[in-house]
Design goal:
The chain has 894 residues and is α+β, with helices and mostly antiparallel strands. 20% of the residues lie in helices and 29% in strands. The strands form twelve sheets. Strands 8, 9, 10, 11, 12, 13 and 25 form a seven-stranded mixed sheet that branches.
Amino acid sequence: MNVNRTDKCGMIDRNRRLWFRFNGRDYMGYAGDTLASALLANGVRLAGRSFKLHRPRGLMTAGVEEVNVLVSVGTGGATTTNLRATEVDLVEGLDARTVNVWPSLRFDIGAINDLLARFFKAGFYYKTFMWPDWHLYEPLIRHAAGLGRPAIEPDPARYEHQTHHCDVLVIGAGQAGVEAASQAAQSGARVILVEQEPSIQPLPQARVLFMSRTTAIAYYDHNLVLLTERPADGLARERFHQVRADRIILATGTFERPLLFPGNDRPGIMLASAAKTYAERFGALAGRQIVLATNNTSSDEVAFLMAQIGAQIVATIDWRCGERILKTMGRHGVKAVLYRDARGKSQKIACDAVLMSGGWNPNVQLFSQAGGKLTYDPLIASFRPAADLPSVSCVGAANGDFAPDYGITADWTLPEDGGKIFVDFQNDATVADIRQAADENFRSVEHLKRYTTLGMAVDQGKTANVNALAIMGSLTGQSPGEVGTTRFRPPYTPTSLGAFGGLYTGLLFKPYKQTPLHVANMEAGAVFEDFGGWLRPAVYLRGGESHHNAMRREALAVRNTIGLFDGSPLGKIAVVGPDAALFLDHIYANPMSNLATGKARYGLMLNELGVVIDDGVTVRVADDHFLVGTTSSGADRIALMMEEWLQCEWTTWRVLISPVTTLWGNVTLSGPKARDVLVSLGSDIDLDQEAFPHMSWRQGKIAGMDARVARVSFTGELTFEISVASDQTEMLWDLSSAAAKPFSGAPIGINAWNLLRLEKSFLHIGADTDGTTLPADIGWTKVANRDVDFVGRRSLLWTCNQSPDRLQLVGLAAHDPLKVPPIGMAVKSMDPHRRTDGFVTSSEMSPSLNRPVTLAMVRAGRARIGETITLMNGQTCQIVSGAAYDPEGARLYV
């Protein structure tokens, strides 16, 4: 236990032992450890596998740039996968498992890929999986893709969101960041200082909000920065912060980059700065017999520290002196290196760790996301910000301001043999891959990235990019600056979906609206489903009947006696003002200004492309007052659309738009006994056919309540839609139910309601239409001839939109009266250049007709009435027009 732990340094609490499990084995660490530091202290070198070749890997870094050791922790819904071991805090009982291995880390079947590596060169998937058909390989490739496996069960953890505003946001609490925050606070600015590590102490200034264990993951327009915090208080797994700042100072420091030499990926080979961090913060040694490989002066203090804490530097291989590592040895951990000394002689030396320092890259990810430009600086052999942005600046090492004595010899001349030289460690992208990309003329940095997958690992190129760009430059005769860089994309580090979602899950993510009759519907046996964001009854079950049988029973009740329907969610929008009629003439595809007061009219609404987006019945309450009806899912959307047109285009028109859907509840009585039930409730409205005809609207008293009654029908039966104040709806429902009981009336769900409209061939927006359906496709052929320039009219005049060969809504009569054509089933085409001639949109077995009733979109359907077509399932149908039930519409006028 803890064979590589030193007591000469470290900030861990050695009085608090913590037991944890890694890949089924028990280990001991201390409070303050990360999983990575505890593994290192326990002498665990083999801790991961690479993605493509499944090569053995160990820790390479100590921070967010780690790519080699990714783990899953937790069980069930609490499982979190693809976590960097360097950022997993050690807690009692932690159970971590390496991802991307099977059946075990030490014996991974996927390692056969390493033996076949010559077949897996850059771009191999583009060249290999094209013949005879990509889909032949797709299942296998998809199975092999990915790293860890996400949990199937819901995540029980808590995630929180917070929003902040400040004058100055400083990201990074190193020396440069602390100085910047202190100066800003002294000037009176409100300052937020962000630091991803947990060990930095906060500033004493009262105007500085210090946020440790917090990572800035994204910069967006107008100085919006997103942060993710790993709280130490245990109240949440993560907190997601949105910060708006007047000015942003990036003190994000640097990343050390690997050296390039054959076999540079073996476990036990890590960055020198990582070894320093593990020793200073955790008292964990990278090894006891260490080879130090470097090309700059920053590794000097690492060598001094290692000697102080009891590790032996057995060799220092300095690129500045012409020395090079030629080869490394050891399968599951480095055991020796073969190197060329300054005299040109090859030497082999045993070791258990190699610490490498290939130079430092300013951390410019957030600066790049903000739109900042980068320039190559040969003095630091890396890219640095070219100039500050108006409200974003980099300071300290992030700006390329390294220590005055920093000296580097960056030599990207590489040997042709000696083994694989890895550039992107997770994706197994090698120098050979870059050479192949150059040979095949993929020289743009964007092409290089996608062809080789360089920079596409979980670190997004933090350790790989500069080396890759420099190698491409050396192969193509360009400097790294001429090769250029890609623009970094958010997030800065992999971020859990839970952090983005926060508390907005389940009903908090999508809260369902409930009608005023929700309780009454529950008591009546309703089975609720989501319809346009409302919880509405699909069916009302009785006894042990199935949903299908309940739907048929309810539909027959409407046809034979009476049904009660909860129509409260249907959209209601008051449009009032002297120009209300003019406004609606432009909103609807059909005219509304000539609608008489007290009358109702069915209308279609289009978008600017001429596509049908909603339908409903509008009534004229007064000369300057209309009540627009919409679908339940379209109420909010249509109200916003109206406001946009009014405020952006027709700004001088005197119109007020007021959504009133939730102010009114609705009980709809439909069926041949509907008038009898309504009369029995008592009303001062004359309900006779002559006084109150179909497509009319009245106001008055129903059962003593103020009511609005519309005589419209979605079922083809005599129907009264009764709207009362929301808080009176339940009373109206109870009274109506009691009055309907002598007629064996029944509550009707959405499923039966849709079946009834299908028997009448009435349109259902969203079911019988899609994002391409025009008015002419559903029989409205004359609307484009109107002289009013309504929304979408000009698009209807396009030649392609007037083609008679478009899909058109028609009825289908199935030749087999016992077989219902499936919804979505395609229509076979007789044209050899087309596979299909349309598809079924609505279909169900009619309990009134004892045969299927079907609507379909068929190419040139109206010109093919009477023709027999064949569906893809072999079923034959005849194209028909008109309603299947009561085609004359006589039942509306009883």
